[in-house]
Amino acid sequence: MESIAGVDGSAIMNQLSEIIATCGLSVVGAIVVLIVGRVAAGIIRASVRKGLTTMHTPDNVRIVVPNASVYGQTIKNFTANDPRRNDLVIGISYADDIGRAVETISRCVTSDSRFLKNPEPVIAVAELADSAVNIVVRPWCRTEDYWDLRFDLTRRIKEQIEAAGCSIPLPQRDVHLHQVGGSAA
Q1: Is the pTM for the entire model greater than 0.85?
Q2: Sign of CA dihedral 34, 40, 45, 51
Q3: Which of 3, 61, 106, 136 qualifies as a FRET site for 15, CA 20 to 30 Å off?
């Protein structure tokens, strides 16, 4: 960048991009939680004068980054839409009764009034994985209830699946040894 009348053009461009980035963040002012790189955080404030965005992570760590760094990233808002869908994957043993497991999980979901009846929850076999039959559990809830319900449902499903005689298997591998020349290989 060339200097014009003693002014560094790149410095002006950097300042201009910071101001534009801050204005963009102000327009998106409803952001409560966003992902910057690999960090999830809630925006506290974006400052034009300082060119910085201050955020707090869920575990209360303060992060300060240049506005242009935030503005140039994908912004993922976890609280803008209501309702939200919980997505769980529950693995059961291949020896377990799939119908019993699905019915047990369904009772866990429908017994909690915080889950919405509409849209209807999805509970279905999603995958025949290496060590388990994976069942997806996708109930809807109000955004404000999301995390409490997720934690409660995960625990309730584990307890009820086991009470119904099903098991949540650990990953496993079968190893076969072959004899080569009279000794195990």
Answers
A1: no
A2: negative
A3: 61
